[in-house]
Amino acid sequence: MNDERYEALFQPLKLPCGVVIKNRFFKSAMSEGMGDDSYGPTQELIHLYKVWGEGGTGLLVTGNVMIDHLALGEPSNVVVEDNRHMDKLKAWAQSVTGTGAHLWVQLNHPGKQSPKFLSKEPVAPSAIPLGGSLSRYFAAPRALTKDEIRELIQGFARSALICKQAGFSGVQIHGAHGYLVSQFLSPHHNRRDDAWGGSLEHRMRFVTEIYKAIRHEVGPEYAVSIKLNSADFQRGGFTEEESLEVIRTLSDLGIDLIEISGGSYEKPAMTGSEVRESTREREAYFLIFAAKVKSVVACPVVVTGGFRSVRAMNGAIIDGESDMIGIARPLAVMPELPVQIQHGHYESMEVPKVTTGSKSLDQKLGLLENVWYSSQLKRIGAGKRPVNQPIGKRQLLKLLMDSGIQILRKKRA
């Protein structure tokens, strides 16, 4: 039996390219770390998306698929740069067959957010090292040449075409969280004085050229989207006003969906670690900014970060604050969440607070929560149920050791 109180969440959404999403649930990207030794998707990763498709989510976005095997964000990233994994990619795309779900590939390049053990000399718009507590784990970058910038733009386009040929129904450009596209947009990280830096018009050129190159390869009826920061939340960084201008430009160019997030490794606003009480009451971290976006563009918008109750999800759709509901961590512990809502079996959840019990140790480990949630995805991929409860300090430390916590050792060459 369907729960009619939340009908708005189960209305279809038509995108500018003509694609129709069956409902308003959007699985935002989580970095699964489930690529094999040759950078292809594993059977466990394929099964994970099968489970999510059967769980009722209308649009599933993969986590952190890289466009270059020499530029990884984490060990065990999947990489799409040529046709070598076409059979595996087709199997991944077909994992949601029969569920009505769309499966899009998030395409990314980490820039300087590639750990030292993976990149001894990462690239970035400018030779500005990362700051903050995690800076010791990342090597100082060198500035990209103009020819390299053009090669990267074509790399995004090539990867998008391969995804289309494999059967994925769309792609998402990762333009948030401090990765390479985000670095180009930020005046703090991009201090170039050529056509790729300086004014906002020049700083946004990298992402607009990526979008145009992808659209040229995949055609007008294929879904192309972007994940974009509302702001970087750091002094001298990308601002809300600049983000709105980039969004206007991409909307005018014809992009199909804009996912709103914020922050970076240096200032992780996307984790909700520092939010105002008024924001906490409304749950989603970026709803106020999303309302500004919807007042200036017609392109559909999805807000990700913070949604926990069906009341808040439904309200955001009814009030026109967001066209889709971006969910990540709740789907790591309840992959069938939309089905549960539809049948009236879900109202809200508290996702586990992942901690060793030591604040100083938590800070030193940095991406601790990511490791724990990644372990839940691996459980689902292996045919097990996720564990929706906190774990003790001893268990957590064992998990870190078992996973090879990627800041301690290199998992593969």
What structural category arises from helix and sheet content? alpha/beta
Summarize the main sheet: 8 strands, parallel, barrel
Give helix % range.
Answer: 25-40%
Q: How many E-type strands?
A: 13
Q: Pick out the low-confidence regions.
A: 269-282, 404-413
How much is the average pLDDT? 88
N→C terminal distance: 51 Å
Rg (CA only): 20 Å
How much of the sequence is in beta strands? 5-15%
Shape: globular
Structure annotation, total helices = 15
Sequence of secondary-structure elements: EEEHEEHEEEHEHHHEHEHHEHEHHHHH
Characterise the protein shown here:
This protein has 413 residues and is of the alpha/beta class. It is 36% helix and 12% strand. It has 15 helices and 13 strands. The protein has helices spanning 43-54, 86-93, 146-166, 180-185, 200-203, 205-218, 240-253, 277-282, 287-296, 310-318, 329-333, 337-342, 359-365, 368-381, 393-403, and strands at 13-14, 20-21, 25-27, 59-61, 65-66, 102-108, 123-124, 142-143, 170-175, 223-229, 257-261, 301-304, 324-327. The strands form three sheets. Strands 3-4-6-9-10-11-12-13 form an eight-stranded parallel barrel, surrounded by six helices. The chain has a two-stranded antiparallel sheet with strand order 1-2. Strands 7-8 form a two-stranded parallel sheet. Helix 1 (43-54) packs across helix 14, helix 2 (86-93) packs across helix 3 (146-166) and helix 14 (368-381) packs across helix 15 (393-403). Residues 269-282 and 404-413 have low confidence and may be disordered.
